[in-house]
Design goal:
Largest interface: A-B, 84 and 71 residues
Oligomer: heterodimer
Number of domains of chain B: 1
Structural class of chain B: alpha/beta
Helix content of chain B: 25-40%
Distance between the termini of chain A: 25 Å
Strand content of chain B: 5-15%
Low-confidence stretches of chain B: 1-35
CATH topology of chain B: Alkaline Phosphatase, subunit A
Number of helices of chain B: 10
Strand order of the largest sheet of chain A: 1-2
Distance between the termini of chain B: 25 Å
Chain lengths: 527, 407
């Protein structure tokens, strides 16, 4: 297969400034279809693709490409969950090795149990207490350290399992929606006694409902053990209501600020009293003795509501569909979507009663999705950046050290910075995270030269053809003439990059450097 | 002057890409008046964000108010344990290091800080504290606006520094670009070791437009350019500094150690952001908050010991804030829910030590919350006017009386 022609031979519909929507923004896109737009679809509805996948999707039709994503090819061959070593409910700890002194945890720096990802110290920052292995350690302290080590190992196993799944899955949209929902109903492992199986079961729940009914998903989330721990609802009792879940349910999960009052928060908290889980099995239980069964006035209605009634009242509000529509558009299409567009998608969501398969089917075929306003209008998240790069260069499975890299970029799955999830957008980018991205790209290109991806077989007759091949494959041709000239200069050893002409001897090193530099172009940060 | 030496020696001829046309879309700020910040490059503000909503009642403890013990049956700190300021209030015993600084007159406590119609959301209230705009949504932070208004050189890559993984809204301005730096180790481009890759990287990120329109393109290019140049310069610029205190091995300790290094290296840095937390103690509050307050006090003590040893303590003002205090009555989980007013600390920088403002009443609560007695923008106005000698009007919407806690 040849890649030595730029892919941007046909631009999407002409650029339109914010605020001037097409007449039918959610109407089916009828413009030209090509690998450049296929790559756009694969980046947004999945994690990008290999050069072959992009060309294949771009040479069929848009509808065929969208159908293939929505069809969720069976992913049963993938491991359903990581190996469990944790002391989660129902899973006993492995016995302590006899008389082995507790070692300082070598991996503690990556996922310390006590804090969420954004608050983690930098990877080199945590020095285990130097004296720990020399001084005698009390048995209970040693056991606690051993437990903490196992939990950290479990955390790492969980993250690696999901990253590998994103990379290997035949159903990328399923994993992308799971990642979206993880940010929407953001829950962090390692805090509030949330360990191994807690967060994995929540992850499986999100995956099960990825294209399902999101009102039903919200009912299930209210009963999810990780969520019951995370927002303290397991401790929400009649005598002392705990408002944490009730507040975030409306503010961050379903309605947004401005669509409820403080009184609604307090009344909702009363309705959710007694929603807890059983120990040690861990399944949801409704504890009637701790439930406040008095009258509550919530969003203008009065009754003896329980939490499920509260969720149904919330989803009957027009603000709920608006809230989901806006969040979906911001994640999948572009930032600051026009109110008319939000209203149009919200109407779709209501018409489908929160069954999301038809909603995403419409969205991924729409005029607005393929408009130039949407094209490369999102900042790639760290997970998109890393998994997309792995796919593009044909590297699998996920390399050791990837979790630490993601942490420096600001996004470790299962470790959102707060219940608000990741802010995303331009917030992904600062000097520190950009350096982490570039350094990852640089290291990855060394790995790519050893792998079986397109880079190892890239052949071109000249520096100009090589620059075209790289920008065509990595950026779908989205490079300026100046950037292309700079890249050619680097490859041919001219100008400020003068270090000798391109030759058989320096070909490998030069193409590695040029591929890295292509990834350093600002366009590669954008989806 | 140090700052000029730095600019000429370090970055002559380089400019930071202007961020007009970026996400914020506005033209560059055009303040009518740019007369600089007081003390030239001497004075620095360090902001410590106590993330998650720190419980004020268990920080400055009202041991003389019976209502406190009524509302906090399991969480209250026993009168004998409180580090007394007077017969009514005192420090949490975990703040012993800070109390020692207080006793030397180096700490101002501002009681009952908050704002009207308080928001109980972490995110909105954090945004309010960082933008200083309770009524509107704005895209800039109060420190960012302060830096914009001052006559700071855009060529200086380190006018302000956020020692955090994400750039806080507080530091976002229209003119001054603030880098986020976690630790110095690893802050740099691996490819800069190769001269031709370094040169090509520079030319690529500074190159012209691409064949598509994206609201983020100029932002990405500017940050990449800034990251490359800043990471080349910073380690060299701070290499000559040696800490003169032993910092606690905590994230906050490491952040403040780097802050002292940057301040002591005189890069013209005027504002530094660090964060500490999480204080969101809905359940089992005591062990978590006690640990975090202990870490806070010990890190601040080491910071000021280090600053003093280098003669920098009087030019560094440190201010803590948190998005809200917590509910007066504890909940059923030995924790507290989101509340309202809470105290702030201002440390060093020639503060006139003591207690300012009024402790919120525990007898007249607002739906279970302590009502604020001092508007947080009065504290900001104090910093802007008394520390940086700038008019607060260019930074804060409305007029707020400064407190008499700075000379």
């Amino acid at each position: 297969m040849r890649y030595d022609a730029p892919m941007n031979t046909s631009a999407p519909v002409s650029f339109r400034p914010p605020g001037s929507l097409p007449a039918t923004p959610l109407g089916a896109y009828g413009g030209p279809w090509n690998p450049r737009l296929a790559a756009h679809l694969l980046r947004r509805a999945g994690f990008g693709g290999s050069p072959e996948e992009i060309v294949r999707a771009g040479s069929g039709s848009m509808h065929a490409a969208v159908d293939a994503l929505l069809g969720f090819p069976a992913s049963d061959a993938l491991p359903p969950q990581p190996p469990l070593i944790d002391d989660v409910e129902g899973v006993p700890l492995p016995p302590a090795p006899p008389a082995a002194p507790a070692q300082p945890p070598a991996v503690a720096v990556m996922l310390p149990g006590g804090s969420s990802a954004a608050m983690l110290p930098a990877a080199n920052a945590v020095a285990p207490p130097a004296a720990a292995s020399m001084m005698p350690v009390a048995p209970d302290v040693a056991e606690r350290m051993r437990r903490n080590m196992l939990r950290r190992d479990q955390n790492r196993a969980n993250v690696t399992w999901w990253l590998d799944r994103m990379l290997a899955t035949p159903a990328p949209l399923q994993e992308k929606l799971t990642l979206y929902l993880h940010g929407h109903f953001a829950t962090a492992a390692g805090e509030k006694d949330i360990y191994g199986l807690d967060i994995i079961e929540q992850n499986q729940l999100l995956r099960r409902y990825a294209l399902g009914n999101w009102r039903e998903l919200t009912h299930a989330i209210a009963r999810d053990r990780a969520m019951l721990k995370w927002l303290d609802n397991a401790r929400n009792r009649k005598a002392h209501p705990n408002e944490n879940f009730a507040r975030e349910l409306m503010e961050l999960f379903t309605l947004g600020i401005g669509n409820y009052t403080e009184s609604d928060v307090r009344e909702s908290a009363r309705a959710f009293t007694g929603y807890t889980f059983a120990r040690p099995a861990g399944e949801f239980v409704f504890n009637g003795a701790q439930h406040d069964d008095g009258l509550k006035t919530f969003l203008g209605q009065t009754g003896n509501f329980d939490g499920d009634a509260v969720i149904d009242i919330i989803f009957a509000q027009p603000a709920a569909s608006q809230f989901f529509a806006r969040r979906i558009l911001e994640f999948f299409v572009y930032a600051e979507p026009e109110p008319e567009l939000v209203a149009a998608l919200a109407a779709q969501i209501r018409r489908n009663d929160f069954n999301m398969a038809p909603v995403f089917s419409t969205l991924f075929r729409s005029n607005v999705f393929y408009s130039e306003r949407a094209y490369r209008a999102l900042v790639k998240s760290p997970v998109e950046f890393v998994i997309g790069s792995y796919k593009l260069f044909g590297i699998a499975p996920v390399q050791p050290g990837t979790i630490a890299v993601l942490e420096r970029m600001g996004q470790v799955p299962f470790h959102p910075p707060s219940v608000k999830g990741w802010d995303g957008g331009v917030q992904w980018l600062n000097t520190q995270t950009i350096l982490a991205r570039e350094n990852f790209a640089s290291g990855l290109m060394s790995a790519a030269m050893q792998g079986n991806g397109f880079l190892t077989s890239a052949q071109a007759s000249s520096a100009a053809a090589l620059a075209d091949l790289l920008t065509g494959t990595i950026l779908q041709g989205d490079a300026s003439a100046t950037s292309l000239a700079n890249l050619q200069a680097y490859l041919s050893g001219r100008g400020t990059s003068a270090n000798g002409a391109l030759s058989g001897e320096n070909y490998q090193e030069r193409i590695r450097g040029a591929a890295y530099l292509t990834m350093a172009m600002p366009a590669y940060q954008l989806s | 002057m140090q700052r000029n030496r730095f600019i000429l020696g370090g970055l002559a001829g380089l400019t930071v890409a202007a961020r007009a046309g970026d996400l914020f879309g506005a033209a560059l700020a055009q303040p009518a008046l740019r007369t600089g910040l007081a003390g030239s490059d001497e004075r620095v503000l360090v902001v410590v964000n106590l993330q998650g909503g720190n419980d004020g009642l268990n920080t400055i403890v009202p041991h003389g108010l019976p209502a406190y013990y009524k509302y906090r049956p399991t969480l209250a700190i026993a009168p004998n344990d409180v580090l007394r300021i007077d017969d009514t209030i005192g420090f949490n015993p975990q703040l012993a290091s800070l109390k020692a600084m207080y006793d030397k007159g180096q700490v101002a406590v501002v009681q009952g800080v908050g704002y009207p119609e308080p928001d109980h959301s972490h995110f909105r209230s954090t945004e309010i504290w960082q933008t200083a705009e309770p009524q509107r949504y704005v895209g800039t932070g109060w420190v960012g606006r302060l830096l914009d208004e001052a006559d700071l050189p855009e060529t200086n890559l380190f006018n302000a520094v956020a020692l955090s993984p994400v750039l806080p809204e507080l530091m976002i301005g229209r003119r001054i670009d603030v880098p986020s730096i976690g630790t110095l180790h690893g802050y740099g481009l691996a490819s800069d070791g190769n001269a031709s890759e370094r040169a090509a990287f520079t030319s690529l990120v500074q190159s012209d437009r691409v064949p598509f329109a994206s609201p983020y393109l100029s932002t990405v290019a500017s940050i990449e350019d800034h990251a490359q140049r800043g990471s080349q310069e910073l380690p060299k610029l701070v290499a000559g500094y040696t800490a003169s205190a032993t910092y606690p091995a905590t994230p906050l300790g490491r952040s403040l150690a780097l802050a002292a290094q940057i301040i002591g290296s005189r890069l013209g840095t005027r504002a530094i952001y660090v964060q500490h937390g999480s204080f969101d103690t809905h359940a089992a509050q005591r062990p978590t908050q006690d640990r975090l307050l202990h870490e806070l006090a010990d890190a601040l003590k080491a910071f000021y010991d280090d600053l003093a040893a280098h003669g920098n303590d009087n030019r560094v003002l440190t201010m803590t804030f948190s998005e809200f205090g917590r509910r007066v009555a504890e909940n059923g989980s030995r924790g507290t829910d989101h509340g309202e007013a809470a105290p702030m600390f201002l440390v060093g920088g020639g503060v006139k030590g003591g207690v300012y403002g009024e402790h919120p009443s525990l007898d007249r609560l607002d739906a279970g919350d302590a009502t604020f007695t001092v508007d947080f923008r009065s504290v900001y106005a104090t910093v802007i006017e008394r520390w940086f000698a700038r008019p607060a009007a260019g930074v804060l919407a409305g007029t707020f009386a400064a407190l008499p806690l700075l000379g």
